[in-house]
């Protein structure tokens, strides 16, 4: 079809096609319809063109189960999202009858399909909505006269289903084959992993031997200074610890490869327990433990003495390691049927019920591991493996003492056909794990280092005595040093001594490093003290959490001593500069502000004394002088406020956010002319109220001051994220061009002339300083003449930090 100009009239062609079609825009507005669609739905083109499809064809209000509108909307949204056609199941979508046909709705069934029309940028521009009226078909299926036809269709469908079932069976067979191949591959990988552990453990033993051998030779040489001897012994102790970890890995690898051999001897289990317990006598005395033993006089049992010795030592060292001073430990052994049952319990922190199985997994460490020295996570796994080798069992329960109760059952007799040596071998002298030794030493580390009393004082908080001494040695030449062995002692010394820098580990008993940082920041005298965390945990989430809690720097072990020294020097340099700057700003603000009241009074006296003699030009100059004095006063107030912004802190509390915003709005000058709306907050906000309130004040005050109208709209809200809150302050002001969006947070920066806006350019700088002091970020999203939205994050705070993820 052609129009008068000879061009093809696609509109007429579309409207004349035999199918039932609608054309929708991306907002679901009807822009075209075929004639057949109009006839089938009993509407005119004028009634629906330009209307939203759901307003033109609403659900039948008399049908409470109508789902046509919901299903159609979901299909159209899928087309917009996926940019591909969407075929819908048959829908019941009743059609409104014209008034001349009696009104009401007529039951209809449709088979719809929605197809996208994409533009040159691959964006959905239109949607073709095509339907087929299947009402008669559905009604025929419902009719009893068509039952035979339906039965025939069912028979046909049954045949098709048989074919489909066969095809599915073939697919399942193929999938099973693939699963078998994957399982074989996993078994191979597991075997390779076991072999790797075994190989790497053997390979590590050689260099360890080459470290320990020369060290023993050097230690026997006489011409060594005490300092050299001390350092060599430190190397030897850590090499022995590494050797223990290597042996643990090798035992695990042997167990996995079923190569871990067991040699049975007839051993007095009671003597074995007492022998291991004697290794800890000094440690038990140091921590003032109450140890009770309920043991028979003797109990001979057929076991591998060396492996069972490791089992008892690992369990006992765990109890001593995690138990508080004056703790209780109870050992019990008795015969139960054909088993020996050994129990060890304490009043330590215990094992949460959800971890009672997981603690025996390799490399597993609970979140509570932040409260103690780190290990490999293999100790209890080796215990379980060694017990399993003896065909025994181990489980953990809640102790009546309040801590954990480990129960081991070992068969009294070795399995049949197993060689049992009649003579008990001499028991080897096992070493107590080094981490227990070091933790239990009661040596007090005194303040030491350079003798110059003006040198910066550094507080080192580290529970590993060797690492503590190492840090002292490398820093004592340049600084005064004082040490603490856990977070609680570190907090007490920080409050007492006010060090220039604090260096701390994370995992410590009594109070971990994160708790200590949090507690330190509550003391006004320590708010700006630089804190560096030195830890073996290289974890991004933990690093972010540490910085949010108030630490300035973070180093992962092992580290370069030169880098550590450089970072500490930088922290001290920055701290000294900040202290000097704040002192200067504070004094300068007071000194510069003192003449301003005198200027104001002098201007008033001049105006009073020469009221009738002043020319208009002179009055203008006096007004100008008064305005400049007022602006100078505001500038100095802002400068003083900026200097103190980094030390604004308060207690953590649950905040009523709408009430907080309302209080802030009342404090902002001229804010009464603005509509300040606060979004409803459906979750509790736990944070420091005072600094948060100050940031919101500066942002709302900024929106009011820089609005191009005397009235405007400001919206304030908050969104909860996993680890922080994200607040926003949005206005409908003049907006900010992208080129200036970083500049506005700089001190004394304004986008408009100061003659137009009474602003000293400090407010946003104050907000930025407070936000960054709390380890968070602030930014703006805006465009010219489109308003501005200021965003800032704020850390979630809680008094109980024991649930911090590793």
TrEMBL record:
What InterPro entries does the annotation carry?
A: CheY-like_superfamily (IPR011006), HATPase_C_sf (IPR036890), HATPase_dom (IPR003594), His_kinase_dom (IPR005467), HisK_dim/P_dom (IPR003661), HisK_dim/P_sf (IPR036097), PAS-like_dom_sf (IPR035965), PAS_4 (IPR013656)
Query: Any idea which GO molecular function terms this record carries?
Result: phosphorelay sensor kinase activity
Superkingdom assignment: Bacteria
User: Where 4-aspartylphosphate occurs along the chain?
Assistant: 505
Where does the record place the Response regulatory domain?
457-572
What Pfam families does the record point to?
HATPase_c, HisKA, PAS_4, Response_reg
Where does the record place the Histidine kinase domain? 199-414, 587-798
Entry annotated with the keyword Metal-binding: no
Its recorded name reads: histidine kinase
């Amino acid at each position: 079809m052609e129009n008068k100009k000879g061009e093809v009239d696609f509109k007429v062609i579309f409207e004349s096609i035999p199918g039932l079609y609608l054309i929708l825009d991306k907002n679901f507005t009807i822009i075209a319809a075929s004639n057949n669609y109009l006839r089938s739905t009993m509407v005119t083109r004028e009634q629906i063109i330009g209307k939203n499809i759901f307003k033109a064809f609403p659900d039948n209000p008399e049908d409470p189960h109508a789902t046509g509108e919901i299903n159609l909307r979901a299909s159209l949204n899928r087309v917009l999202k996926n940019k591909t056609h969407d075929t819908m199941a048959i829908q019941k979508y009743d059609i409104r009858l014209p008034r001349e046909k009696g009104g009401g709705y007529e039951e209809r069934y449709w088979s719809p399909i929605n197809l996208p029309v994409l533009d040159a940028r691959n964006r959905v521009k239109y949607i073709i909505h095509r339907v087929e009226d299947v009402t008669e078909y559905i009604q025929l299926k419902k009719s009893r006269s068509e039952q035979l036809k339906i039965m025939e269709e069912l028979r046909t469908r049954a045949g098709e289903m048989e074919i489909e079932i066969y095809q599915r069976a073939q697919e399942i067979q193929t999938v099973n084959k693939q699963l078998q191949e994957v399982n074989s591959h996993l078994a191979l990988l597991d075997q390779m992993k076991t072999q790797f552990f075994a190989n790497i453990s053997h390979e590590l033993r050689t260099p360890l031997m080459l470290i320990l051998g020369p060290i023993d030779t050097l230690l026997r040489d006489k011409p060594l200074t005490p300092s050299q001897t001390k350092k060599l012994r430190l190397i030897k102790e850590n090499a022995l610890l590494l050797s223990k970890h290597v042996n643990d890995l090798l035992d695990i690898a042997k167990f996995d490869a079923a190569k871990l051999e067991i040699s049975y001897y007839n051993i007095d289990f009671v003597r074995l327990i007492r022998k291991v317990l004697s290794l800890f006598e000094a440690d038990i005395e140091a921590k003032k433990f109450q140890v009770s033993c309920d043991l028979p006089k003797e109990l001979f049992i057929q076991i591998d003495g060396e492996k069972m010795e490791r089992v008892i030592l690992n369990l006992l060292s765990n109890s001593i390691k995690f138990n508080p001073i004056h703790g209780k430990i109870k050992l019990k052994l008795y015969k139960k049927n054909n088993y020996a049952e050994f129990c060890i319990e304490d009043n330590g922190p215990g094992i949460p019920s959800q971890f009672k199985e997981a603690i025996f997994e390799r490399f597993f460490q609970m979140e509570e591991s932040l409260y103690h020295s780190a290990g490999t996570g293999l100790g209890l796994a080796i215990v379980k493996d060694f017990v399993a080798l003896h065909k025994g069992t181990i489980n953990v329960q809640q102790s009546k003492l309040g801590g954990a109760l480990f129960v081991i059952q070992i068969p009294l007799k070795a399995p049949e056909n197993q060689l049992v040596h009649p003579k008990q071998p001499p028991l080897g002298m096992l070493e107590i794990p080094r981490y227990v030794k070091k933790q239990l030493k009661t040596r007090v580390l005194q303040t030491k280092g350079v003798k110059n009393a003006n040198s910066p004082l550094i507080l080192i908080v580290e529970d590993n005595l060797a690492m503590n001494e190492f840090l002292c040695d490398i820093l004592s030449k340049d600084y005064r040093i004082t040490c603490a062995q856990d977070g609680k002692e570190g907090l007490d010394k920080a409050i007492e001594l006010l060090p220039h820098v604090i260096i701390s580990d994370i995992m410590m008993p009594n109070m971990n490093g994160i708790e200590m940082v949090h507690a330190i920041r509550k003391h006004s005298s320590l708010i700006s003290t630089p804190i560096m965390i030195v830890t073996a945990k290289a974890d991004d989430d933990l690093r972010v959490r540490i910085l949010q809690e108030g630490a300035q720097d973070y180093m992962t072990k092992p580290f370069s001593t030169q880098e550590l020294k450089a970072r500490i020097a930088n922290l001290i340099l920055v701290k000294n500069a900040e202290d000097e700057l704040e002192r200067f700003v504070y004094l300068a603000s007071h000194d510069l502000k003192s003449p301003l009241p005198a200027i104001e009074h002098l201007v008033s006296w001049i105006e009073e004394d020469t009221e009738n003699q002043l020319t208009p030009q002179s009055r203008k100059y006096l007004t100008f002088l008064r305005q400049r004095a007022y602006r100078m006063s505001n500038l100095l107030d802002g400068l003083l406020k900026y200097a103190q912004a980094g030390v604004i802190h308060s207690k953590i509390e649950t905040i009523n956010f709408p009430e907080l915003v309302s209080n802030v709005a009342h404090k902002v000058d001229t804010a009464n002319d603005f509509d300040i709306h606060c979004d409803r907050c459906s979750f509790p906000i736990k944070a420091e109220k005072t600094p948060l309130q100050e940031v919101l004040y500066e942002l709302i005050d900024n929106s009011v001051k820089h609005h191009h109208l005397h009235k405007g709209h400001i919206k304030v809200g908050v969104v909860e994220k996993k680890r922080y809150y994200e607040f926003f302050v949005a206005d409908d002001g003049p907006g900010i061009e992208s080129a200036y969006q970083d500049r506005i947070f700089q001190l004394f920066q304004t986008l408009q002339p100061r003659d137009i806006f009474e602003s000293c350019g400090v407010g946003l700088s104050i907000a930025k300083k407070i936000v960054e002091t709390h380890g968070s970020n602030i930014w703006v999203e805006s465009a010219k003449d489109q308003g501005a939205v200021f965003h800032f994050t704020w850390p979630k705070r809680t008094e109980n930090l024991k649930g911090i993820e590793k």
